[in-house]
Amino acid sequence: SKRIKIKALLESTQTNIEVTVKGWVRTFRNNQFIALNDGSTNNNIQIVVDFQNTDEVLLKRITTGAALSITGTLVESLGKGQKFDIKATSIEVLGDSDPEKYPLQPKKHSLEFLREIAHLRFRTNTFGAIFRVRNSLSFAVHKFFQERGFIYLHTPVITQSDAEGAGEAFRVTNLDLNNLPRTEEGEIDFKQDFFGKSTNLTVSGQLEGELGAMALSDIYTFGPTFRAENSNTTRHLAEFWMIEPEMAFYDLTDNMDMAEALLKYVINHAIENNKEDLEFLTQRLEEEDKQKPQNERAEMSLLDKLQFCLDNDFQRLTYTEAIEILKESTPNKKKKFQYPVEGWGTDLQSEHERYLVEKHFKKPVILTDYPKEIKSFYMRQNDDGKTVAAMDILFPGIGEIIGGSQREERLDKLEQRMDEIGIPKDELWWYLDTRRFGACPHAGFGLGFERLVLFVTGMGNIRDVIPFPRFPKNAEF
Ligand code: ATP
Ligand code: MG
Ligand code: MG
Ligand code: MG
């Protein structure tokens, strides 16, 4: 079709040319002005209808939500707020939309309401902006790694390993539920799940990613990840997308540098390529803020916050240093931490992480060298015998955005740790093979893509930054 997208049309340098646009009606005023949108931008194109010479039946069919094809002349607009109008010479209704039944009215709907009609929320300015930014960020992730010679490695979705995701993995089964196989004791034999093996959906591609890195040097995965998080937080989904690079010959410092560079690169990419959408989202937040009492308002605008993140080094400190800070702190005069920091060895709660980022340092933080008891078996043990070469990156308003580590490449240390924790070595024989044949120092991390999109769009709930959110009791659309 000769259709031109509205974004490209608005960048036109010519007028008095014939154009065809296709899109959905946002509003239709006075039987004369159609605001048409095709999702390429939040800016609508105004169509001027010669209503005196237009069939009345056709005019009635131009309703909010209807799909139209319009041909006409591009002219400079006389109205305020827009550069061009199209003087329609031909209007075709491609799909009607019954105004009595269409759930989206030309007014501001609450995010809660839009979550219930998530199949239609793409048609609002807020979600148009969010999903264009999301698209751009995912392109930037690939661009960053491809420019650095990383190999995009597809790790499996169905897997026998649960990457020690104890209890968080969704089981995959092709069993006939009416005729379940039984063990000799008469219990359901889940070991028969997947053509005779016990399988689940991946909770992380890291272990497989390490196999790739031990030959291709630098790889990354970027795929859907599943966790049976039976909780209702604004930061967790049951299905989310994770970016997991794994780099051979990297230590923890190299790993932190890579992670910081990635985050800054993709945020910068969004600032440069999604100016209009980020300005829209910034303004949206400012309006929301005006409804709040003074002391709850944001200190920085969304765009300033993103720029600040680019302009400053992330604060790096050890877990041990963080505990010292937290022991001496109370969040504010009235309130203590809900979970008081007892001392060294306890895992940090999100209130502690947010305190460090938002109140103490007021910038992104990289925490390193956690106690080995609260981290995974594959993280490299430090010489002190107590900590591992782990890193978590914490972001303002988000909390943990990245978790990573240098990996334990020494077979004896790795096996000893697996024994201590009770991880069956025979099930991970393939993983241990990388330590048997040509083991080398390596490191990697996992970046939760939706947490990144949350940060960049300034949204408050992770369910609003993924097109089709999966969370308890929600998987229809
Ligand atoms: P959290 O402490 O927030 O539950 P985690 O430590 O369990 O996260 P990791 O296993 O370290 O998460 O996974 C790496 C990254 O994946 C996290 O830093 C986070 O950005 C993201 N992530 C983890 N779980 C979820 C989830 N359920 N929904 C969305 N993103 C997630
Ligand atoms: Mg978790
Ligand atoms: Mg965590
Ligand atoms: Mg983590």
TrEMBL record:
Gene3D superfamilies: Bira Bifunctional Protein, Domain 2, Nucleic acid-binding proteins. Its EC number is 6.1.1.22. GO terms for cellular component: cytoplasm. It is an enzyme of class 6 (ligase). The keyword Plastid does not apply. Signal peptide: none annotated. One of its GO terms (molecular function) is asparagine-tRNA ligase activity. InterPro entries: Aa-tRNA-synt_II (IPR004364), aa-tRNA-synth_II (IPR006195), aa-tRNA-synth_II/BPL/LPL (IPR045864), Asn-tRNA-ligase (IPR004522), Asp/Asn-tRNA-synth_IIb (IPR002312), NA-bd_OB-fold (IPR012340), NA-bd_OB_tRNA (IPR004365). It is found in: Cytoplasm. Residues 131-467 form the Aminoacyl-transfer RNA synthetases class-II family profile domain. It holds the Pfam family tRNA_anti-codon. One of its GO terms (biological process) is asparaginyl-tRNA aminoacylation. It catalyses: tRNA(Asn) + L-asparagine + ATP = L-asparaginyl-tRNA(Asn) + AMP + diphosphate + H(+). Transmembrane segments: none annotated. Keywords: Aminoacyl-tRNA synthetase, ATP-binding, Cytoplasm, Ligase, Nucleotide-binding, Protein biosynthesis. PANTHER family: ASPARAGINE--TRNA LIGASE, MITOCHONDRIAL-RELATED, ASPARTYL/LYSYL-TRNA SYNTHETASE. Belongs to the class-II aminoacyl-tRNA synthetase family. Homodimer. This is Asparagine--tRNA ligase. It comes from Mucilaginibacter polytrichastri.
